[in-house]
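README, section 4: Worked example with a bound small molecule

Sections 1 through 3 covered apo chains. Here we extend the same pipeline to holo records, where the ligand is supplied as SMILES alongside the sequence. The molecule in this example is adenosine-5'-triphosphate. Nothing else about the input changes; the structure line simply encodes the ligand pose together with the chain.
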Amino acid sequence: MALVSIENVDMRYGGPEGTLAVSGLDLSIARRDFTAVVGPSGCGKSTLMKLVTGLHIPQKGAVVVAGHEVTKPVSIVGMAFQNPTMLPWRTTLDNVLLPLEIVEKHRHRLRKHKDEYVAQAEALLETVGLKGFGSKYPWQLSGGMQQRANLCRALIHEPELLMLDEPFGALDAFTREELWCVIRDLHASRDVTIVLVTHDLRESVFLADRVVVMSARPGRVVAEHPVPFERPRDLEIMYRPEFNEMVQALHGEIANARELA
Ligand SMILES: Nc1ncnc2c1ncn2[C@@H]1O[C@H](COP(=O)(O)OP(=O)(O)OP(=O)(O)O)[C@@H](O)[C@H]1O
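The generated complex, written as structure tokens:
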């Protein structure tokens, strides 16, 4: 059974006369899969993320996550967005621990087992190359470091599903590539399903098992492309002609989707 199933979903903002963001949206995501979602600007990619996480409930159709229809925010999901929005008055470690104060299952255990959770947060920070930075405040970290910490925060409650909405958009090219490798390794080493929304087609092909292309608004899925490159992948793969052919083909599809709008 799919971990996520989006079935013929319509989502309109601002009442009956408002903007129809997605229409007839269908998508199925298998456990452990890494899916990238690409498409023209404003096609409803972030809307898709919010539908899966239960931040929006569709007017038509259904979103089913782990066998349950989504009717409220889903706790098995971790989310990371473009802007890390760390709380400036909390240390990096305390920012990473924040979801545990919210997710019910952990909230009850947190007080008694604080040491265990702190150790877990420190281990995560180490995985993303931030060993020893837990006591710093977010404003003492670079943008790339904040985004790394943000990933830890999205993972601390051990979500089955990690939703990443343009998480590397604001970073320089080198930092972005470094973080691609962090995500690649997280996916390889953990039992996690990942959905990544991105404008960066190289990022989508480097990281994903499958690239889903959306139409211009109202968004729906117009194509799904399995990524044929073997894993583990390293950054050199981007120099391969087949890699660039796939990126160019996706680019052409999105340009067409824009024109049809
Ligand atoms: N709260 C809202 N109220 C009204 N319209 C909205 C709202 N949120 C999104 N929209 C509109 O719905 C459409 C889809 O928005 P969404 O943010 O999902 O697109 P996107 O593909 O993520 O965009 P981008 O690629 O530019 O980040 C857009 O046209 C947007 O203007």
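What to look for in the output: DSSP finds eight helices and ten strands in the chain. Residues 1-76+160-261 form a domain with the Rossmann fold fold (CATH 3.40.50.300).

Section 5 describes how to batch many such records.
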